Each structure stands twice: as C-alpha cells, then as structure tokens.
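User: Class I SAM-dependent methyltransferase. Structure?
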Amino acid sequence: MSDPETIRIYDERAADYAGMTDAYNTTDPRLTAFIAACPAAGRVLDLGCGPGAAAAKMAEAGLKVEAVDASAAMVEMAAKHPGVSARQATFDEITGTATYDGIWANFSLLHAPRADFPRHLAALHHAIKPGGVFLIGLKLGKGEARDRIGRLYTYYTEDELMDHLRKAGFTPGDIRHGSGEGLDGSTAPWISVIAHG
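Assistant: Predicted structure:
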C-alpha cells in the first residue's frame, strides 16, 4: 500500500479498525487453515497486518511472524503482541528469495493500484519458499474506487484473480466466498484463496 490518503485514514482510525476486526480475526477459520498448512515453527509474513490480531494468533501457534503495514499506528499496535515482529513497510518493500513458509495477505493487496498488482504478486512469489502457502483475500467487483471514508480499493472478479495468481507462479487451491461490513459501514462481497508457491 502506498496511497497516502488510505494510509492516513488507517493511522487515524486504527483503534476503530481493531475494535471492528480483532474478534473475528482471532477466530477466522481461514487463519486456522493457513496456520495448519505451515510447517511447525515456520517463518511467515503477515502483509498488511493491521492491528496484529492475526499475527498474534500465528505467533501463539509457534510460527515466526514478520508483520508489516504501511500505517505507523497499525504497526505500533501489532508490535505489542507477544512474538510478533512488526515494521512499517509498503508492498514495494517486500523482498527476499524463498524466505517465507507462508504469506498471509488478507484484505491488504486490495489497496494496491491495479497496475501494480502483478508486480506485487511476482515479488511475493519470489519471497515464498517453493510449495509455501499463500492466502489472499480481496473484495469482489470491477474497477478502482474510493470508499465512503476515502480509502482506495481495487476490485477483481474471481476469474481475474485466478489469472493473476497463475501468471505470478502460484497454484490456486481452496476458495471461499463471503460478505462483510467494512470500516466505512458498507457491506461488500469478498473472495479468499489459499494458493501455493
């Protein structure tokens, strides 16, 4: 994420966001499946970690967690969780080769401009170990738009997402659909895909 307005909103609304999402994030069945798919004591990246609830759950399960977010306020909250190493970084700052056993990108890459999405996926595929588990969650739809409070979103159809994942080198696997209320009060459909590097 590099959109200044989106980052500013997350900085200002970090506590509100945590209050809205922490309870669900700690009991998310997708997170349970992700953790189970990672090797014991594996190294994982929580990309766009937000307040760090998911990262904390990964750490509790014995994983070595690196949590990154472009929002300084979110990083500050995430760093307070035991076992979570958190730092401020944008999607462009993710580097490394075969570094991670798993990458959790749950509703983070939807803030990347469409033109940058293939490059970010390619970098993540480069950073994940062969066969590593990759979870991505996005909102379904078309185009780019700002939500009611000004955050930048890029929407994808399921077919578009599958195409992007395969072109980046990932093998898509388990797919789930749902809908949920966002920080702006609107409800939107989403897709979550567990893929492998």
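Strands lie at 43-47, 64-69, 84-88, 100-106, 128-139, 144-146, 152-154, 171-181, 187-196. The first strand starts at residue 43 and ends at 47.
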